[in-house]
Amino acid sequence: MGQIVYDVHYQTSLGFLISYYFYLTGLSAGSFMISTLSYGFGMEKFKPASKMGVVTAVLLLLLAPQFLLMQVAWPVKSLWHNFVYLNPLSAISYGAFLLVLYPLNSIIYGIFMFKDNKKWTKFFGLIGIPLALAVHGYTGWILALGVARDYWNTGLMPIVFLFSAMVSGISMMILMIMIRDRFFTKEKVINREILEGLAKLLGWLLIVDLFLVFCDYSILLYSGQEGQEVAHFMLFGRMAFGFVFMENIVGKIIPLIIVMIPKLRNNYYLLVLAALMNMIGILAMRIVTVYGGQVLPLM
Amino acid sequence: MSIEKKNQKLPRWGMVIDLNKCIGCHTCEIACKVQNDVPLGIWRSWVKEIEKGVYPNVVRAFRPTLCNHCEDPVCVKVCPVHASFKREDGIVMVDPHLCVGCRYCMSACPYEVRYIHPQKGILDKCDFCHFRVDEGLQPACVEACPTSARVFGDLHDSESEVAQLVSREPVQALKVDMGTDPHVYYIGLDQTTMEVKREVEFVWDK
Ligand code: SF4
Ligand code: SF4
Fold it and tell me: CATH homologous superfamily of domain A16-295?
């Protein structure tokens, strides 16, 4: 109806650094899950990925919070204020504890794994699973509790984050296993069985992930004014390249086709391509989600 | 509106903005900037202007905007370090010594009235000029308004002008559906000033 003559600019609150933080915690949680498949749940065929999984999980989770601290204006102050002046109602408060507990537990779990102590490895692996779920689920929760923004404020957000974490983690493991087997072993033969298992797992998780995205968008398109506008903006507006093309076509649908058809999946080049595309797609998803939630002004 | 409940002895500060009186002169905006030393690029209070209608039947609608000093503020809930807090008299403030600049409150406030101070890196927002209020003065914007469109006072005191305006006039607060219970009320709020024109570029930008 009207034409805005004067209004002030709002500041976007969360930026790319937060996207990278989410991406790295996702990769970490995903690779941790893979590492527990054999020691925690007795799936022996995934054993060659366990040690690699736990080492990457720890390294990535030491790296990830650095991005978080770079985003915060007062990083050093935030390190202790988060514990001393803790507000139990805020999602970030719990993150501070999780970001300490999860790497600690992963390190202990890794030490027992390298010492070949099956019993304690299983024990710490099983403790680690809820922690890994929490450390990544809470990142989705942070966004979901940004209640002002319809795009974030949905109960699906933590679950979407968990599934995208797992798929990107698996893709990363596929790539790492290939590189290790091909270049860093004496025999130079790639372990076909574990790759096949991971590729199938990736396929099923991608299906769930796509289903969740479908649920999210179909509901947004029928919700209130802001929700509809955000959905249109993501599907047909300026974000369409990031969301539709990068995240869903490149990141999910093409990899899904590759890993679901045995003939394509057994071609190592295509499998590498699928894993790479999926990792890029999930990075796009993190950026699109953080940016998309705040790109439209609220008032 | 929860003005009636809670501790009646303490004041509950609130504001009524009569848009029929507002002439869109932006004096409050400037007064706030000067009083609170608000740097370039951020605002604590401003006047949104909308042009509506089809020529020759056109009019400008104004909406002075500031923190709504909500009774149930989301910003306070999400702040991880208790830097955002609500005083007993209802003023929502930020403790600059506690704030770590995580910006979480900015993404949670439904009214987009929170900014990060570009030099200090801590959160900056309207605090009803609490130091003036504590001295018995009016906030700078209220005092500067040439048409007395902004009225500030104690909503618990039935003699005060704000309390009387809120009970007598048809008032409206912004986004009451967010469950934040805002305590800045508008008389004669125009729908167009609440619409979010996402497609339209700001004329200001061109
Ligand atoms: S308007 Fe926003 S910043 Fe002000 S009290 Fe309400 S939620 Fe907090
Ligand atoms: S920016 Fe400051 S006031 Fe806002 S949530 Fe973070 S610590 Fe609290």
Answer: Formate dehydrogenase/DMSO reductase domain (1.20.1630.10)
Nearest beta carbon to residue B108 from set A11, A74, A146: A146
Please give all residues whose beta carbon lies within 6 A of any atom in ligand 2, as ranges.
B 79, 81, 83-84, 94, 99-105, 123
Flag whether the ipTM exceeds 0.90.
Answer: no
Put simply, the answer to whether B178 touches A148 (Cβ < 8 Å) is yes
Structural contact between residues A28 and A34, judged by C-beta atoms closer than 8 angstroms: no
Contact B100 A6 (CB under 8 A): no
Do B141 and A131 touch, CB atoms closer than 8 A?
Answer: no
* Residue A83 at interface with chain B, using a CB cutoff of 8 Å: no
The whole-angstrom separation of Cα B161 and Cα A125 is: 65
- Across chain A, which has 299 residues, the per-10-residue mean pLDDT values are 81 89 94 88 85 93 92 90 90 90 94 90 91 90 90 93 94 93 86 90 96 94 88 88 94 95 92 95 94 83
What is the pTM assigned to this prediction? 0.91
The 3-state secondary structure of chain A reads CCEEEECCCCCCCCCHHHHHHHHHHHHHHHHHHHHHHHHCCCCHHHHHHHHHHHHHHHHHHHHHHHHHHHHCCCHHHHHHHHHHCCCCCCHHHHHHHHHHHHHHHHHHHHHHHHCCCHHHHHHHHHHHHHHHHHHHHHHHHHHHCCCCCCCCCCCHHHHHHHHHHHHHHHHHHHHHHHHHHHHCCCCCCCCHHHHHHHHHHHHHHHHHHHHHHHHHHHHHHCCCHHHHHHHHHHHCCCCHHHHHHHHHHHHHHHHHHHHHCHHHHCCHHHHHHHHHHHHHHHHHHHHHHHHHHHCCCCC
Query: Of the residues B12, B76, B111, which should be mutated to test ligand 1's pocket, given the most ligand atoms within 8 Å of the CB?
Result: B111
**CATH of B13-72+127-192 among 3.30.930.10, 3.60.20.10, 3.30.70.20, 3.30.1490.20:** 3.30.70.20
Q: What is the mean pLDDT of chain B?
A: 89
Of B85, B86, B104, which is best to mutate to test ligand 2, by the most ligand atoms within 8 angstroms of its C-beta? B104
